[in-house]
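Reviewer comment 2.1 asked that we show a complete input and output for one of the modelled complexes. We chose the heme C case, as it is the one discussed in the main text.
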Amino acid sequence: MKNLSAYGSRLLIGAMFCCTALCFADMPEQAAVCVACHGPNGNSSMPNTPSLAGQNARYIYLQLRDFQEGRRQNAMMSPMAANLTRDEMRALATYFSEQKLSNKNFRADPEKVKLGLAKAEETLCAMCHLGEFRGQNEIPKVAGQNYDYIVKTLLDFKAKSRTNDAGNMTSVANTLSPTDIENLAHYIAGLN
Ligand code: HEC
Ligand code: HEC
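Response of the prediction step:
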């Protein structure tokens, strides 16, 4: 009996240890800082702050590197990437890529969605972003992204204040009017 209960408490301690190690293993320490702006699990409700939930890990990692090395600049975000090691960036990228994106608060205007979809087809966005903007590797998923952020970042590409895209997006954004951008953002933000 005595042996059995000693065995039982060892099991319990073992289980608690495993849970501490496993249950939190995929939530990197720094993620607590990120969610202050990027929202719970990377689901942002701040207008010009992108959601990270469900984004491609490769893309997240490359953007963190670009912010750290100054190829992409933003007064709020650049300081956040400044002191991360490459391993921390990879862990954060994996963590956020595995979270579920929820965009249930966005109300798309059906007329703008129709025009946005037509513009996306005409401009061949899917050639790089794949169908319904689901993204691949270093090409971001944009489906369900924050509406204001989509508008802001497309205007940034157009104005060349965001230039870390090897020219891909600058040349695309050049062909878009502010109205096209608004329509595209209604279409894309409403996707899942
Ligand atoms: C003080 C607010 C704030 C904090 C804290 C913050 N970010 Fe950001 N982050 C932003 C903003 C704002 C942008 C958009 C920058 C822009 O417009 O170019 C951004 C952009 C990004 C992007 C680019 C996403 C995309 O779709 O292009 C990544 C990746 C990112 N942040 C990761 C992180 C990680 C990881 C952390 C925690 C270590 C973090 N951020 C902490 C505000 C913040
Ligand atoms: C030639 C390939 C290509 C085409 C075509 C293209 N994109 Fe992109 N797009 C990219 C790449 C690559 C990036 C990431 C750039 C970077 O690393 O900063 C990107 C980034 C973006 C972003 C920023 C996402 C974020 O989280 O910050 C948006 C929004 C976007 N594209 C929308 C569009 C739309 C809308 C179209 C069509 C009108 C389009 N793209 C066509 C390659 C392309």
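The radius of gyration is 21 Å. We note this here for comparison with the apo prediction described in Section 3.2.
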